[in-house]
Amino acid sequence: MLILGIETATEQVGVAIGGHEGVLASAHCARGRRHAENLAPAIEFICGQAEIELGDIGLVAVDVGPGLFTGLRVGVATAKSIAFALRVPMIGVSSLDLLAFPLRFTQRLIVAAVDARRGEIYHATYRQVPGGVQRITEAQLGTADDLASDLLAAGEEVLLVGDGARRYREVFDGLARVEHAEVGNPFPSASSLVQLAHPQALREDFEQPDSIVPLYLRRPDAEINWSTRDR
To answer: Per CATH, the architecture of 3-94+188-228 is what?
Structure first.
């Protein structure tokens, strides 16, 4: 089964195609958060690189967040449209899971952090398990200072990954037993999305398109601005 992975949770757009042979083609682009403009050409490009037709896709996997409101909306809507048109199943995966997965060989705790803007980050903590990583905390929204305090209190060896950790690097630098991962992309990877979706697809552990919704963890900025404006 060929899997199309669509990742748009951050300022980067990522797409990949793969299956039992691994990832056949992938592309990632960050051009000013222009997700809607970049996504369709990126899908067309990787189909050409993999020498397949879009109709050959048997499953659509999509990053459901947490992440940027507009990016998630574009990615999830596009994934649902393709799945509906091709009449194929879907799988949704967390952006934080995608960040942690490339670090699955470390014995340390993994903390994945996505920049949430407005001085906050989305984050979750993971441990290595056979074949991958396991999330041991739910996705949370908070400040970098709050996360730094939690890491100090935990007192464990930690690897930080993600654009949220990078943006607030000065908050985490100098913390005992806490390091920034030097390998791996600071953005969620569409290749990791295909790799994580593949074993789930083999188990036929699919999701109904209606059940796949973006995980925002807070209201869009436009709603917040409207509710707090002077009246």
So the answer is: 2-Layer Sandwich (3.30)
